[in-house]
Design goal:
16% strand, 24% helix, alpha/beta, 8 helices, three-stranded antiparallel beta sheet, five-stranded parallel beta sheet, single chain
């Protein structure tokens, strides 16, 4: 017991100041892409190099779908005129699919509009996580939010073992054929109303597994997400910020 107390005094307070202060991001962190339409030369290199098909040329400007983007930064690297750049903006989550599209202009994170959700889950949130064929990267970064450094429990957010105790289902992975029934059963077992969070490019659009014969291009055609969190995987700050914004706590 005394050793535990001594260790606690030595270690001091280890939980970060987020969201009251911005998170400390790694030097190589790739955040929200930015597009400057007036600079685009329409060379198409950004479209050709994107491994996830997230970049398209619409009109005279590239358009980036962050729901497909794996944040490899290749589009910015090949753009000689800097029409596409990668920012440090970690606030990527959106409540609607169309808000994940980047085509230029000033970015303002979307605010919650679901008053029913806020009535049920504004003060606390019980999450059942379902790995629907993911590679475990999104799952690991979600697990990080339970650690001392992030401590999402201080916001009333908890992971529960059974969907029967859940307010929402957090889905990772492209929804493989083998996990389709398990995902549907988890959703059906949850008490209604229940909300859905699509975590990562795979859960949103299928990611690099798009159009695979054994995957379902994400969760959208199976369960309608109430929160989309882009990334491959999403940084813990991106995920926590999105959940807090959904709960109107940020």
């Amino acid at each position: 017991m005394w050793n535990s107390l001594k260790a606690r005094l030595f270690q001091k307070y280890r939980t970060g100041k987020f969201p009251h202060k911005p998170p400390v991001l790694p030097e190589r962190f790739a955040g929200r892409p930015e597009v400057a339409p007036e600079k685009c030369s329409q060379c198409g290199k950004c479209v050709e190099i994107c491994p996830a098909g997230a970049v398209t040329l619409t009109g005279k400007s590239p358009v980036i779908d962050t729901g497909k983007c794996i944040f490899c930064s290749k589009c910015a690297e090949v753009c000689a005129v800097k029409a596409v750049t990668i920012s440090k903006e970690y606030r990527l989550a959106a409540m609607s699919r169309e808000k994940l599209t980047v085509s230029g202009g000033f970015y303002i994170p979307e605010r919650p509009t679901d008053r029913k959700f806020l009535k049920f889950c504004g003060q606390s949130l019980k999450i059942r996580q379902v790995s629907a064929g993911g590679c475990a990267a999104c799952e690991l970064d979600f697990n990080v939010l339970n650690t001392l450094a992030w401590d999402m429990g201080r916001f009333g957010i908890q992971v529960v073992a059974s969907p029967r105790h859940a307010d929402c289902i957090l889905v990772t992975g492209p929804v493989s054929e083998n996990m389709l029934q398990a995902l549907k059963k988890s959703y059906e077992a949850a008490p209604k109303p229940v909300w859905v969070i699509a975590c990562g490019a795979c859960a949103i659009s299928g990611g690099i597994y798009q159009d695979s014969p054994v995957c379902h291009n994400g969760v959208e055609d199976i369960l309608k997400p109430d929160l989309y969190v882009p990334g491959c995987p999403p940084h813990p700050a991106t995920l926590l910020e999105g959940i807090l914004r959904l709960m109107d706590k940020k």
